[in-house]
Amino acid sequence: MSDVVISPALEGTDSSLSEVRDWVTLLKPRVISLVVLTGAVGLIVAPGHLHPVLAITAVLCIALGAGAAGALNMWWDRDIDAQMRRTATRPIPAGRIAPDAALTYGIVLSLASVGILGLATNWVAAGVLALSIAFYVVVYTMWLKRRTPQNIVIGGAAGAFPPIIGWAAVTGDITLAPLILFAIIFVWTPPHFWALALWAHGDYARVKVPMLPVTHGARETRRQILVYTIGLVPLTLLPGLFGFAGPIYTAAASLLGLEFLRQAWLVWRDAQDAEGRSLTNDAPAKKCFRYSLYYLAALFVALAADRLILA
Questions:
Q1: What share of residues in the chain are helix, strand, coil (percent, to 5)?
Q2: Where are the transmembrane segments (predicted)?
Q3: C-beta separation of 164 from 174 below 8 A
């Protein structure tokens, strides 16, 4: 059998594509997808009108800013990422992207996203975008993450800013409505992330990151997931009560919330040993984590549909 000869040109193409994928990976594209959605919905439900080109620009700037924060997070956390199974193959710990290059990349994208948003829409929206980047990188990543089990509670605010940014891009101000959307994401973040932390606690313990399951145990984490979910569901009904959402959203929020409560209850009732460790390999927590992603996306899609259909 003859040897297969691979063209040098094809090898170069594969290498270039791999490098592009690494730079995209630094932006945390899975996280960006929810950020873009919630930011776009904030823009859709805001009163007033923004030219479609400017609206698209605003959403792209939100995505770019979130990606920049993700790159800076990976730059700072490269030491612990290298020791965690879930993150060891990321571009920086795996040696495919140099730390200094990632730092420059994150800073340039941060400045570009804020500057373009300010010029395209207004500086209120740009200022909130800058605040969200700084909050995620400085407050959460550099300060809270390695110091307190409340890291994700306080630091979760960073991911709750996009609806405010979208709203402000249209209106130039911040009112109660976007603050309610901020609050929904803020309260959603702990049960979402703690469901992940339950089955990834070994990684966090290994690198001494004080996530709640590491510092307070699995049983208390399950209880907190249920408590936060109980608080979240009535909070999601406020848009209807305050008049910036209608029956489509309210019905969706009610049904989605009931299922989230069921998922959180199953996490709480998961079979446990005497120390609260799961006897089912944290299967309910994994399902709850996956559902929480769907939940937030569906909630904001329903809000946008309500506005677009009933406006």
A1: 75, 0, 25
A2: 31-48, 54-76, 97-117, 123-144, 151-170, 176-199, 225-242, 289-310
A3: yes
Residues 45-64 pLDDT 10s: 999 889 999 999 999 999 99
- Position 14 scores a pLDDT of 64
Q: For residues 96 and 146, what is the distance between their CA atoms, to the nearest angstrom?
A: 25
In the chain, the percentage of residues whose pLDDT exceeds 70 is 95
The DSSP string of 72-88 is: HHHHHTHHHHTT-TTTT
d(CA 43, CA 70): 22
CB-based contact 178:42 (threshold 8 Å): yes
Q: What is the amino acid identity at position 51? A: H
Q: For residues 6 and 274, what is the distance between their CA atoms, to the nearest angstrom?
A: 58
Cα gap 112→101, rounded to integer Å: 16
**Which regions in the chain score pLDDT beneath 50?**
1-7, 9-10
Distance separating alpha carbons of residues 238 and 177, to the nearest angstrom: 9
Per-residue pLDDT reduced to its tens digit, 59-75: 999 999 999 999 999 99
Contact predicate 234/295, CB 8 Å: no
Tell me how far apart the alpha carbons of residues 226 and 205 are, in angstroms, rounded to a whole number: 23
